[in-house]
Amino acid sequence: MSLEAILNRIRDAFDMLNRREFGSTDRPAPAPRPRITDVPDPAPDAPVLEKVGFAEEALPWMDAVHRFSLRLTQGDEDAAADLVQDTFLKAYRAWQSFQRGTNCKSWLFTICKNTHLKNTDQASTRREVVQSDLDANIEAMAVVDLHDRARHHKLGIDLFDHAIDDRVIAAIDGLPDEFRDVLVLSDLGDLKQAEISHVLGIPAGTVKSRLFRARRRLQEVLIDHAADVGITTDQPA
Amino acid sequence: MKSQSIPCELVMERLWTFIDRELDTASEAEVREHLRMCGRCYPRYDFQQAYFRLMRRLTTEPAPSELRSRVFRTLLAETG
């Protein structure tokens, strides 16, 4: 058999197979399906962050981080906004180092505080307040002195209930850094003392004594201010 | 009852730690019981409660919506 005859046989065999499997080659080609062009663009508010869990665990703390930033920057809105952005950007980049199940707010506050220290170059020049490390138990007795002070001015507990927010914020901002940071993290940030110790890198005992001194000082300012503006009550504290 | 026997001074010394929920369970019960019974210490506790109400009031302020958008845009840009 010549080579040409062999090739013809092979071609015939392929033709037969094609007719069996795919039907007649005379069959009209199916009409092309229209291209899919009707999927809308994603809504602008629907983008998804790449790192799993960040949106659910970290972003809900933005209010708290913002409040903390405002106090760190002593009310400077622009500086606080920059600090919040830097904090979340760093947190996002380091998200794999966050241990899921631990306190994300505390972790964010740590980043925020460190970023602020770096921004303001306070890390190397940070002053220690020696008196802040007094015995916390002695400081705790301030609750008696504060109550007596309010009673002396004939002030009731409504001095706190009626305090003007801006006045209180100003009093907090006026605290020494060491006291303000601890007070803000505790009383506004709702962190435990051990968490604050971690955020600020100071011993837990120091956190406690600074916190109690900060509360004492803040309440003294608020009591004295209330006395100055003449708030009195029929029901002294 | 032993839990009623702790003196006022000790309760006052522990008051902020009590409010902060940083006491151990037994000590917390002692302070709680004392406050329930002591007409001298309770008003001081009440006074401090008012302070913490004030602090809570200051923690309701949300971050500006513009800042939220800005942070989110920054993170999305980081995602690429």
Name some characteristics of this structure.
heterodimer, A: 237 residues, mainly alpha, Rna Polymerase Sigma Factor, Chain: A, Arc Repressor Mutant, subunit A, 2 domains, B: 80 residues, 4 helices, elongated
Q: Brief description of this entry?
A:
The complex is a heterodimer of chains A (237) and B (80). Chain A is an all-alpha fold.
Structural class of chain B: mainly alpha
Q: What assembly state would you assign to the polypeptide chains in this entry? A: heterodimer
Biggest interface:
A-B, 48 and 39 residues
> Which structural class should the secondary elements of chain A be placed in?
mainly alpha
Q: Estimate the strand proportion of chain B.
A: under 5%
Please report the distance between the alpha carbons of the first and last residues of chain B. Answer: 66 Å
Q: What's the number of helices of chain A?
A: 12
Summarize the structure in words:
The complex is a heterodimer of chains A (237) and B (80). Helix content of chain A is 60%, strand content 0%. With 237 residues, chain A is an all-alpha fold. Chain A folds into 2 domains: 54-120, Rna Polymerase Sigma Factor, Chain: A; 130-228, Arc Repressor Mutant, subunit A (Orthogonal Bundle). In chain A, helix 5 packs parallel to helix 11 (193-200). The radius of gyration of chain A is 34 Å and the shape is elongated. The termini of chain A are far apart. Chain B is mainly alpha-helical and 80 residues long. The longest helix of chain B is centred in the middle third of the chain and has 16 residues, at 42-57. The model of chain B has no long low-confidence stretch (mean pLDDT 90). Classes of the chains: A mainly alpha (237), B mainly alpha (80). Chains A and B meet through helix 3, helix 4, helix 7, helix 8 and helix 9 of A and helix 1, helix 3 and helix 4 of B.
Q: What are the SSEs and their pairings?
A:
The complex is a heterodimer of chains A (237) and B (80).
Chain A: H1 3-22, H2 54-57, H3 62-72, H4 77-93, H5 104-120, H6 136-140, H7 142-152, H8 158-161, H9 165-173, H10 177-188, H11 193-200, H12 204-228
Helix pairs in contact in A: 3-4, 3-5, 3-10, 4-5, 5-11, 7-12, 10-12, 11-12
Chain B: H1 8-19, H2 25-37, H3 42-57, H4 65-79
